[in-house]
Amino acid sequence: MEYTYEQVAKMIDTSLLNPGLDDDALEEGCRTALKYNAASACVMPFYLKKCAEILAGSTVKASTTIGFPHGGHTTAVKVAEAQQALADGGEELDMVVNISKVLSGDWDYVRDDIKAVVDLVRDHGQKSKIIFENCYLNGDQKIKLCEICAELNPDWVKTSTGYAHGGATMEDLKLMIAHSPEHIQVKAAGGIRTLDALLEVMDLGVTRVGSTRTAEFCEQYKERIGK
Prior knowledge:
Strand content: 15-25%
Order of helices and strands: HEHEHEHEHHEHEHEHEH
CATH superfamily: Aldolase class I
């Protein structure tokens, strides 16, 4: 399929989560997201307030993570993180499920954990993404998480953090799309390393990709379409 530059740029959540990024690198990353009109800049929580200031007045969303990267925080801590993020100007919050509880089959805990954050974020008029970390899960567990999210209505379900041993795969993306209602979008994270890979998952119906390569992808696409 053919896409406009704007459609491709708005696929990208600029990922600024590497703990080796200093303040200058984080500011540069936010300004790169702004320059290319990406969907969002997703930063470490401590930098979110500054990120929101940099992006103010633009269509690029200020984003951060909750329970990152392993999902093992207590629900109360995840809620506190979300409250702080919302106070700091967060518009999209990416929350990691409790992976250990998923593997244990404690679905009531998993549901309540997700619901506490999703409901809070929605009540503040902002958006949530739920990270499964699929590389640790089997197919039945992935499907069950899709079903739980179908009940709770986050805005996205997301494959991965990008910090485990595996990221997004075509197989997982197809599964998540197949088992999610139309109003819940799917985000790919980890492993989308080329523009062609981004376009491939876009064709599949994925609506966001987490990437550290915003400038590279956007410049390549502008060149490809002669913009």
